[in-house]
Amino acid sequence: MRPVHSALFCRLLPAPFSLALRSLVLVLLCITPRCQAVQAENVTVLEGGTAQISCRLQNYDGSIVVIQNPRRQTLFFNGTRALKDDRFQMVLFTPRLVRITLTNVSVSDEGGYFCQLYTDSTHHQVATLSVLVPPETPTVEVKQEAVEGGEVELTCVSPRSKPAATLRWIRNGREIPGVVSQQDNGKTFSVSSTIRIPVERKDNGAALSCEAFHPALGGQKRVRHYRLDVYFAPTVRIIPPSGILREGDSLILTCSITGNPLPRSIQWSKINDTLPERAEISGPTFQISRLSQTHNGTYLCQAQNNYGRAADHYTLLVYDNVSLITTVPSTPKTTQPITSHPVTPTLLTPNFTQDVEDPGAVVETHSAVPYAVIGGVLALLVFTVICVLIVTIWCSVRQKGSYRTREPILAWY
Ligand SMILES: *[C@@H]1O[C@H](CO)[C@@H](O)[C@H](O)[C@H]1NC(C)=O
Ligand SMILES: *[C@@H]1O[C@H](CO)[C@@H](O)[C@H](O)[C@H]1NC(C)=O
Ligand SMILES: *[C@@H]1O[C@H](CO)[C@@H](O)[C@H](O)[C@H]1NC(C)=O
Ligand SMILES: *[C@@H]1O[C@H](CO)[C@@H](O)[C@H](O)[C@H]1NC(C)=O
Ligand SMILES: *[C@@H]1O[C@H](CO)[C@@H](O)[C@H](O)[C@H]1NC(C)=O
Ligand SMILES: *[C@@H]1O[C@H](CO)[C@@H](O)[C@H](O)[C@H]1NC(C)=O
Ligand SMILES: *[C@@H]1O[C@H](CO)[C@@H](O)[C@H](O)[C@H]1NC(C)=O
């Protein structure tokens, strides 16, 4: 066993030291129980961090201390650098403690570091260096686009961690169990968690998150937020104008559209007819100024995306000026809109309807008359009472005694 060991050891050792070491290994033997000893401590460090590898010495008597890497290449030979790797530094060499540091640790640095002491016999201890690789914030991959009524497949991926990260899918504070798969990439792991969830249009924009947990994150987690993008066919609704439309009025229709993706173009049409020349279309708004009865008909708003199409219709009935007269109760005012219609029809119509149909104004003028009458009557009453009083007093002054009994009776008038 020993010759094989030392042969390998010497092969890996830089030339100047191999000869000296070979002789030492062969010469030095430890038989007594009170010999020198060395102790090594295991180290765990984050990737990119700095590791301290320490060897504790007991009863050190000035022997040669050799520190080797996991490939058994000598890093330091009794304090002197042997391997050309500036990431290793000897920071301490006392009779009790030898310490080296390794900066910018990578997973390939993992393994057992040998603290070897050449005395009567060869003592060695191994310090195991473990490297943790915390996961980056995971990513979300969509394997299949989400269409309403279907399912969406989402995969949360953490491409590199050591040990393997734990992934959790969360929606509304609840975990959605996923199918976890783990792949070993040599020293690190790639982890993924896949969920399949049914989607409706109400799920569009719903928030999900994928959380990655790892011992190196110390209770913290790396979270990726994801919003569902659910595709669905459009819905179309025409918002109709309120009230009756008469000749000369303006028609404004607004088409309210949903859909994902939102339909880019809206088609306006008239069933069994062409659109009137005066029709003005700007996106969701359809307008005809100065309506006439030839505009009667059914108008259609249509929209489509890759997932379907939808339409809504509006039936326009333009009432003539004659029916206008019959619908308006106040006769003296009807002459006004008829004569002024050709000049500024759109402006006068609302003014006119306001004058006639505002019930508040009518109630106000009616209530003003009774109040004036009541006030006048009250004033008259008070005046009469005062007059009667004056007359009574005057009478009582002139005819004292005999008419006194009448006073209370007179006061009742
Ligand atoms: C150091 O790590 C090695 C390998 O993981 C293990 O066998 C050994 O028991 C550890 N030593 C100590 C002191 O924890
Ligand atoms: C090894 O290094 C230590 C500390 O510098 C020194 O005391 C000791 O004499 C050295 N041993 C040999 C054999 O050179
Ligand atoms: C650390 O090591 C990695 C490769 O392991 C290298 O790409 C990086 O540049 C190093 N960083 C420093 C600061 O030396
Ligand atoms: C359009 O014309 C067809 C046939 O000419 C008729 O059956 C249908 O009722 C018409 N539609 C409307 C809305 O007028
Ligand atoms: C338009 O509709 C109104 C209301 O129904 C009706 O009185 C009128 O005759 C129609 N005009 C035409 C040209 O269809
Ligand atoms: C109604 O008024 C419009 C505009 O003032 C006018 O062109 C039309 O001839 C009138 N129609 C009738 C039936 O009076
Ligand atoms: C309403 O009528 C008044 C006069 O009666 C006029 O000054 C005003 O411009 C009219 N407003 C509209 C919107 O037609």
What does this structure look like?
The protein has about 425 residues and is of the alpha+beta class. It has 5 domains: about 1-130, Immunoglobulins (Immunoglobulin-like, Sandwich); about 140-230, Immunoglobulin-like, CATH 2.60.40.10; about 235-320, Sandwich (Immunoglobulin-like), CATH 2.60.40.10; about 320-355, no CATH class; about 360-410, no CATH class. The protein is about 25% helix and about 40% strand. It is built from 7 helices and 28 strands. A 6-stranded mixed sheet has the order 2-10-9-4-5-6. A hairpin with a 7-residue loop joins strand 18 and strand 19. Helix 1 (about 1-10) packs antiparallel against helix 2 (about 15-25). It is elongated.
Residue-averaged pLDDT: 79
CATH topology description of the largest domain: Immunoglobulin-like
Radius of gyration: 50 Å
CATH first level of the largest domain? Mainly Beta
Known CATH architecture of the largest domain:
Sandwich
Keywords: Disulfide bond, Immunoglobulin domain, Membrane, Repeat, Signal, Transmembrane, Transmembrane helix
Subcellular location: Membrane
Main location: membrane
InterPro entries: CD80_C2-set, Ig-like_dom, Ig-like_dom_sf, Ig-like_fold, Ig_sub, Ig_sub2, Ig_V-set
